[in-house]
Amino acid sequence: MGTAIGIDLGTSNSAVAVYRRGKVETIPVDGRKTMPSVISYKDNGQILVGNAAKARLYIDPLNSIASSKRFIGNRDKVYHVHNRTVTPVDVAKNILEKIRVEASKYIGEEVKDAVITIPAYFTDEQREATRKAGEMAGLNVLRLLSEPTAAAIAYGLDKERNQTIMVYDLGGGTFDVSILKVENNNFRVVAVDGDSMLGGDDFDEAITEYLMKKLNVSGSVKNSNNGSTAIQQLKEAVEELKKELSESDFADITIPDIFGTHLDEEVDIHTFNQLTQSLLDRTIDKIQEVLKAAGLTKNDISRVILVGGSTRMRAVQEVVAKQIKQPYIADNIDEIVAQGAAIMAANLSAPDLDSTPVPIEVEEVTSHSIGIGLIEMETNEFKVFHLINKNTKLPCTGAEICFTIQPYQKELRLQVYRTESRIPTDESKIGELTLKIHKPQAQEVIAVALFEIDQSGILTFSSAEVGRESLIFRSYQEDGNLDIPLIESMLHSGDLRPVKVVINTNK
Ligand code: AMP
């Protein structure tokens, strides 16, 4: 294997690092430590990525794309630029391709192997889409690693004391909170939580809305062509205002010509905090939930690490100090995730060579529970039966045995849910798994469905039709639970006949 890199594919900015000659280095892209995760399409078909694209965001907003990580894994989301349609996966592919090329130039060899980081709270579809973008960009994705874990690796490597670390990661578009136990370079994630629709962009949005109300901008002006250029201009000015408020108590926003008027406002930190309090509260709720899931109290946490550009906001630092304890703020806050990924990449690509860092072990957990809908015998109600619970160590498996209920039934349909609740809803349904019955029969046919989640948190299914004698007695253990390792080995060894599985995660 050649040199492997670590990539932090962020909503607002991306970064890349490599571990070599005994230390971790951030690889500059266009001479900077981070690259805006922005792409822009020019009339002549040229695609700009990074700084050059960000510069075009408000000259040509309709053909420029930012923050598309918020939509990755959403199959309905497409962008229309010039005469083509572009998906969030295409955007990620272009960003990753640029990173691969820049990293190859810096290292002096063709780079292929990479660890890419993702929010801990990413769903299976979001993970799968990220991996696909990596492959389309010519990368061999060694593993997807969650961002808080990567930060903990970069922070905690070689620290001798055993610690329980909480990582609070608020970036441009996502929020994650993880609790990890770190013991002698073993990084074990105990619990994760988060919100993949909460980040710095939402803070900008809240202030933008407030200023637009002050300017009395009507809906039709907002939606016009000029309107979107003006909104983009306003958003950029608001982001600067927000950053200034991380340093001082007052900041001015001045735009001479916008929406047919001019904007000249002073915003103080008190107003800013008031307008964004509800966003911050959502992160506090998640902190409490993750502590509860880990069975810990705030006194058990030895260190809180802040990650992500939005943790530069003073209100974030204050609230974390109040809720848990005074946080640690890394000097290289924008690079720490890529650096942790680079350490992991070096471990995975050459685990036995002297050139690798201290060997590390990383255990991550599932970010959501997965279940299927079945009629509960006692109540006769349609309920979710969880096959894999949230915060289960990766990789993991779950299985269910299903029966046909009518003679000559041709298929079995399983509704698959991603939810912590037992109540099935349309929002939590991620798809339908269809098990085709190979030989429909008068008597009931039994099938087994196996769900597997790999090291990167990606879910796959396999299933088989089984004879009653082969499975039903053999696969239940004495405690009444399914013997999953046995089912797994039967499915994988070809003992059971696989049937066609169609999973339609068309949401
Ligand atoms: P990341 O995805 O980690 O690069 O975080 C990007 C987010 O951090 C964006 O929403 C930025 O506006 C925000 N950000 C960067 N610097 C600051 C700052 N000094 N104060 C507040 N937010 C910031």
Report on the structure:
Strands 1, 2, 3, 4, 10 and 11 form a 6-stranded mixed β-sheet that branches. A 6-stranded mixed β-sheet has the order 18-17-12-13-14-19. It has a 5-stranded antiparallel β-sheet with strand order 21-20-23-24-28, with no helix packed on it. It has 507 residues and is α+β, with helices and mostly antiparallel strands. It has 3 domains: 5-199 and 275-363, 2-Layer Sandwich (Nucleotidyltransferase, domain 5), CATH 3.30.420; 200-274, Alpha-Beta Complex (Actin, Chain A, domain 4); 370-504, Sandwich (Substrate Binding Domain Of DNAk, Chain A, domain 1). Helix 5 packs antiparallel against helix 8 (269-294). Helices cover 31% and strands 31% of the residues. The chain has 12 helices and 28 strands. Bound molecules: adenosine monophosphate.
Write the layout of secondary structure elements.
Blueprint: E1 5-8, E2 13-20, E3 23-26, E4 35-36, E5 39-41, E6 47-49, H1 51-56, E7 64-65, E8 79-81, E9 84-86, H2 88-107, E10 113-118, H3 124-136, E11 140-146, H4 147-156, E12 163-170, E13 175-183, E14 186-195, H5 200-215, H6 219-223, H7 225-245, E15 250-258, E16 261-268, H8 269-294, E17 303-307, H9 314-323, E18 328-329, H10 336-349, E19 361-363, E20 370-375, E21 382-388, E22 396-403, E23 411-418, E24 429-436, E25 446-453, E26 459-466, H11 468-471, H12 484-493, E27 497-498, E28 501-503
Parallel strand pairs: 1-10, 10-11, 12-17, 14-19, 17-18
Antiparallel strand pairs: 1-2, 2-3, 2-4, 5-6, 5-7, 8-9, 12-13, 13-14, 15-16, 20-21, 20-23, 22-25, 23-24, 24-28, 25-26, 26-27
Helix pairs in contact: 2-3, 4-10, 5-7, 5-8
The protein binds adenosine monophosphate.
